[in-house]
């Protein structure tokens, strides 16, 4: 576990941890030596030929060792408090740096609960290692070893008996650890699932209440967590009890064997009593460790989860970045899949600079995947995605992102003002530039209706705004960024007519003289495109202009006719 902790925290905190570990080892050895000094003291006082005067050198030695132990303990506590506090900052920084460098495709819905648990509970669990757990952990192993070694100087037979119990204790300890890890994995998975469902329950209150659903929507998840908690107890308790029993059995073995030697006359009683004191110090730290074992295993599991995150491969960056020659987008024999599921097959097309390319096709045909591969949410499995004749994998990630604006159907706004949410498009923009972008997206109309104007907070995720209003803010953000390539993914799919008109006007301002790739089902948007690509099952089956594709009477023509019929559909009179 210590090696894992050193690997995660980095060199700066690693040096402090090593200093603390060295001090703890010294303290644990001194503790073992202090208890070993009780043997000559008891022999001098209670032996067959007592000599009280001879006890003083041993007592002064004991006092000196105890003072050194107290100093080591004080120093280790100070270092532990400092390291524990610094560790939280280090872990949060490493988690943040890692997350910032991961491919955008890594961030799926299931990551919300996991990252939340990781940045809060897992970090707190790991902080407790140097502050509270490292000292008893070191004492558990170093002090008993010191005691057993010193026992050989007083009676090799009892020392050997203690040594022979060690393999059994280790075997039971490993069994206990395996059970504890299994229990902790069950608990962590259940907590992450429950956390995600509670967040979802809070966010979807309007929908749940409209359909008359209340807290019962959480019943299944809460019942699962209850069952998991029960399984955790059933799984983890036998290991804890078994480990405690085997440690007590080890002490009993030494006690019975020492009594047998004393009754046989080969071991005097004062030496037996003194060695039994050492036997207590051999087993007591191990028994205490059984109590802390569950907490330690929880911290180790948390450390494993943080380590799994920080070793996630970041988005590869080129050794020598290239600069695109223009802003045309080209797919060259691209193949891509999510895991074992293939999504795109041999996709090739060019989206000319300054033109609008529309992606059309049934759900699941790969339209959104194409848009996200341009932004390098993932890297392709086969072929290449190019901007300005340069593979996106050969571009500096900052250069790539600076050339792309993305407007998705689902818009998330930060819990801040509209103005600051727009400024995310270009943090260094002036107030005048932010207001100009807002006006182009008709966000100024929204601001006029808000009680505090530009200073109005939009709420978590933009909850105080409608879907169309959030979409306009997102477009204003993209206008402010002023990127030469614009990706639109169903930006007007679920808007009312009034908001759709406003958003369409905003999109006109956003897409002027830019390379535009639009995923849309709206007839006007599709018909006005310079180029239309029709996808089915991850393959482009038709490509051309609106008129050309209608004349071909193929898949696109059928799609167009179907959409026309849908727009003309009306609710008939009820008989």
Fold topology:
Blueprint: H1 2-36, H2 38-46, H3 55-101, H4 111-151, H5 156-203, H6 205-210, H7 219-263, H8 269-310, E1 329-338, E2 341-351, E3 356-360, H9 367-374, E4 382-387, E5 390-391, H10 397-402, E6 404-408, H11 418-423, H12 431-440, H13 443-449, H14 467-481, E7 485-489, H15 497-511, E8 515-519, H16 523-527, E9 531-536, E10 539-544, H17 546-552, H18 555-568
Parallel strand pairs: 3-8, 3-9, 6-7, 7-8
Antiparallel strand pairs: 1-2, 1-4, 4-5, 9-10
Helix pairs in contact: 1-3, 1-4, 1-8, 2-3, 2-8, 3-4, 4-5, 4-8, 5-7, 5-8, 7-8, 12-14, 14-15, 17-18
Give a written overview of the molecule.
The protein is of the alpha/beta class and 575 residues long. It has 2 domains: 2-310, ABC transporter type 1, transmembrane domain (ABC transporter transmembrane region fold); 329-568, Rossmann fold (3-Layer(aba) Sandwich), CATH 3.40.50.300. The chain has 18 helices and 10 strands. The strands form 2 sheets. Strands 6-7-8-3-9-10 form a 6-stranded mixed β-sheet, with helices on both faces. Helix 7 (219-263) packs antiparallel against helix 8.
At the fourth level of CATH, the homologous superfamily of the largest domain is ABC transporter type 1, transmembrane domain
Share in helix: 55-70%
Strand content: 5-15%
What CATH first level of the largest domain would be assigned? Answer: Mainly Alpha
What average pLDDT do the residues reach?
79
Could you write a compact summary of the structure shown?
With 575 residues, this protein is α/β, with parallel strands linked by helices.
């Amino acid at each position: 576990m210590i090696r894992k902790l050193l690997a995660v925290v980095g060199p700066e905190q690693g040096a402090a941890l090593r200093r603390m570990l060295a001090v703890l080892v010294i303290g644990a050895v001194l503790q073992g030596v202090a208890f070993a000094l009780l043997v000559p003291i008891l022999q001098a006082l209670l032996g067959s030929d007592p000599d009280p005067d001879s006890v003083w050198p041993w007592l002064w030695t004991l006092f000196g060792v105890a003072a050194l132990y107290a100093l080591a303990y004080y120093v280790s506590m100070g270092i532990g408090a400092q390291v524990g506090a610094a560790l939280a900052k280090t872990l949060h920084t490493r988690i943040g740096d890692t997350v910032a460098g991961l491919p955008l495709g890594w961030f799926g819905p299931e990551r919300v609960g996991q990252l939340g648990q990781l940045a809060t509970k897992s970090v707190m669990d790991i902080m407790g290692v140097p502050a509270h757990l490292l000292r008893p952990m070191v004492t558990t192993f170093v002090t008993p070893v010191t005691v057993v070694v010193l026992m050989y100087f007083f009676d090799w037979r009892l020392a050997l008996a203690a040594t022979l119990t060690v393999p059994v204790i280790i075997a039971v300890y490993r069994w206990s650890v395996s059970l504890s890890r299994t229990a902790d994995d069950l608990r962590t998975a259940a907590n992450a699932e429950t956390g995600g469902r509670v967040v979802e329950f809070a966010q979807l209150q309007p929908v749940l209440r409209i359909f008359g659903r209340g807290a019962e929507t959480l019943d299944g998840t809460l019942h699962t967590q209850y069952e998991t908690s029960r399984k955790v107890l059933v799984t983890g308790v036998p290991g804890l009890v078994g480990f405690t029993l085997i440690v007590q059995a080890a002490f009993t073995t030494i006690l019975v064997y020492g009594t047998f030697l004393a009754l046989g006359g080969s071991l005097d009683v004062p030496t037996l009593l003194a060695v039994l004191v050492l036997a207590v110090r051999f087993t007591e730290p191990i028994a205490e460790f059984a109590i802390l074992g569950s907490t330690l295993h929880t911290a180790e599991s948390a450390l494993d989860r943080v380590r799994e995150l920080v070793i996630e491969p970041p988005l590869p960056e080129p050794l020598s970045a290239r600069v695109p020659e223009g802003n045309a987008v080209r797919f060259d024999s691209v193949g891509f899949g999510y895991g074992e599921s293939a999504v795109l097959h041999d996709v090739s097309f060019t989206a000319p600079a300054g033109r609008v390319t529309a992606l059309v096709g049934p759900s699941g045909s790969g339209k959104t995947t194409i848009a996200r591969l341009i932004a390098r949410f993932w890297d392709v499995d086969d072929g290449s995605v190019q901007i300005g004749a340069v593979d996106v994998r050969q571009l500096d990630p900052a250069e790539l992102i600076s050339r792309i604006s993305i407007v998705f159907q689902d818009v998330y706004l930060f819990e801040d003002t509209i103005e600051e949410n727009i400024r995310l498009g270009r943090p260094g923009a002036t107030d005048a530039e932010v207001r100009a972008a807002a006006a182009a997206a008709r966000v100024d109309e929204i601001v006029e209706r808000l009680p505090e104007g530009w200073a109005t907070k939009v709420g978590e995720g933009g909850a105080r705004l409608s879907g169309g209003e959030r979409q306009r803010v997102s477009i204003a953000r993209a206008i402010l960024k002023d990127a030469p390539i614009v990706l639109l993914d169903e930006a007007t799919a679920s808007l009312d007519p009034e908001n759709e008109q406003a958003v369409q006007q905003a999109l006109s301002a956003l897409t002027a003289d830019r390379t535009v790739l639009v995923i849309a089902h709206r007839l006007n948007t599709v018909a006005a495109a310079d180029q239309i690509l029709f996808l089915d099952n991850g393959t482009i089956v038709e490509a051309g202009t609106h008129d050309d594709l209608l004349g071909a009477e193929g898949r696109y023509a059928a799609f167009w006719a179907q959409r026309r019929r849908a727009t003309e559909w009306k609710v008939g009179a009820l008989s």
